[in-house]
Write a structure and sequence with these properties.
alpha+beta, 14 strands
């Protein structure tokens, strides 16, 4: 049965109309920060978008970032519209979705939703920012090898030199060794928005304010040309939240970032004869790992002990260290 909104049938369809998409996302641009930035020309080609319509009115938007499974997804809007988008248009086998807690029942109509902690979206602007001075240095693309050696301690992602060139990265050295760094996930000059990410401190150098210092440097640089700067942190990480608050960040909203798996293989919608032609045994479950917001597939030989881009080494964060969380 076709769902309705205010008595009007809901139809989901792909969209490449950036004006329409932006108009809907700007209803809550801070919650939709990653998606808003992905509307820029450089990122738009790496994404797939869908809208749900009730009559001529957009009631929900969904976005899927291209790349290896599971990739990032974002949904926003009316629950029946979200359900229609995930049922009819955006149908990855697995994804890492960002949505409000209220939207998870709509996601669950098509996907098995894995458990996970609530996330906090924090934001800062020029008026609220409080810098934390420290001897930091801007990192260059040629230093990406050092950056990745630091990130291998706790991240599953592997940054290319282009990510450093296009983003903003600052670090702190001790004895010539890079021991703390922070950077960006995505920046949109068009939307005047920046997203801080990839915050990491070597385990031997924690509880010295290094992560706060590099986060402060990245934030200060972004605020030169961005009206809003945002980041994510787990709701169950009070020391990190407190450290970001010390820089002037405030909580905008809480939301969910969950690994989801399609409840039934997409080939099950094919007529029986086609299923028999290609065999009836479902493909094996893919090995799923959490990745960063705009993931880069790690090269062979990357440590399998590394975890998601959540800024936490396998042993977990130490008190007082403001470590970044995944998108």
């Amino acid at each position: 049965m076709t769902a309705t909104a205010d008595g009007r049938p809901i139809v989901a369809r792909p969209s490449t109309d950036r004006a329409v998409l932006r108009g809907f996302l700007e209803r809550d641009r801070l919650f939709a920060a990653y998606a808003v930035c992905d509307l820029d020309e450089r990122e738009f080609g790496r994404t797939r978008w869908a809208v749900a319509l009730a009559g001529n009115h957009v009631i929900a938007v969904g976005m899927e970032y291209a790349g290896p499974t599971p990739q990032s997804m974002f949904v926003m809007g009316h629950n029946d519209g979200i359900a229609a988008i995930l049922r009819d248009v955006l149908r990855p086998r697995a994804a890492y979705i960002s949505a409000t807690a209220a939207a998870l029942p709509a996601v669950a109509r098509s996907y098995r939703v894995e458990p996970g902690p609530a996330m906090v979206r924090m934001r800062v602007d020029r008026a609220s920012f409080r810098a934390y001075p420290a001897p930091v240095e801007r990192l260059l693309p040629v230093e990406v090898g050092e950056l990745n050696r630091l990130y291998q301690l706790g991240f599953a992602a592997w940054l290319p030199a282009g990510a450093v060139a296009e983003g903003v990265y600052f670090g702190i050295r001790s004895g010539g060794r890079l021991v703390a760094a922070a950077g960006t996930h995505v920046i949109s000059r068009e939307a005047s928005m920046g997203v801080v990410g990839n915050v990491m401190t070597h385990a031997d150098y924690r509880n010295r304010g290094l992560a706060k210092a590099v986060t402060s440097a990245v934030t200060a640089e972004l605020l030169r040309y961005c009206d809003d700067v945002v980041l994510n942190v787990r709701a169950d990480n009070p020391p990190a939240i407190a450290a970001y608050r010390a820089l002037g960040y405030t909580e905008h909203c809480r939301f969910e970032e969950r690994l989801i798996r399609r409840s039934a293989p997409s080939w099950s919608v094919l007529p029986g004869p086609f299923r028999r032609l290609f065999g009836s045994r479902p493909a094996e479950e893919a090995q799923l790992t959490y990745d960063q917001a705009h993931p880069i597939e790690p090269p062979s030989g990357t440590s399998s002990d590394a975890i998601a881009d959540n800024g936490e080494p396998p042993a977990g964060p130490e008190p007082g260290e403001p470590l970044e969380e995944p998108r």
